Write a sequence for this structure.
């Protein structure tokens, strides 16, 4: 195995780290109590990866079974219990559990419990997922061809499990 080709060719390094305090307000807050925190976006990582913290309220639904054609998605449970669909069946993820879904892998998630849950979502390579997170509920309500085009534009292909 070898490292990728160098992208930084300087001799001294740069001051370019980005810090996000833990008490930063979530970028998305829904009336149901769900929150999405943009920890590292496509823009901030130069497309290397995307990292988001999703805080779900009790009995919070998530997306149904779907796959992505251009990005992998990983889940790391921070707290509570998260139901994760791994392409074959539902498994219960607890604090510290991790699920990696390669490109094309079927997956879904939800919080079926009576307690809140929190997890990290990691997309690689980084994709501009923010528009998806910000508008998916609204677009789903509209439905029809506009919603279908929105899903394709955001590399989300829903299927029956």
């Amino acid at each position: 195995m070898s490292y990728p080709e160098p992208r930084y060719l300087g001799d001294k390094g740069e001051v370019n780290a980005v810090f996000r305090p833990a008490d930063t307000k979530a970028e998305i807050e829904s009336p149901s109590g769900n929150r999405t925190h943009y920890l590292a976006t496509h823009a901030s990582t130069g497309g290397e990866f995307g990292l988001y913290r999703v805080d779900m309220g009790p009995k919070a639904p998530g997306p149904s079974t779907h796959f992505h054609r251009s990005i992998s998605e990983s889940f790391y449970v921070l707290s509570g219990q998260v139901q994760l669909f791994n392409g074959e069946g539902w498994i219960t993820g607890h604090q510290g559990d991790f699920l990696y879904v390669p490109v094309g892998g079927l997956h879904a998630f939800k919080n079926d419990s009576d307690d809140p849950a929190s997890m990290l979502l990691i997309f690689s390579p980084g994709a501009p997922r923010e528009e998806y997170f910000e508008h998916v509920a609204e677009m789903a309500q509209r439905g029809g061809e506009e919603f279908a085009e929105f899903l394709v534009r955001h590399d989300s292909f829903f299927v029956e499990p």
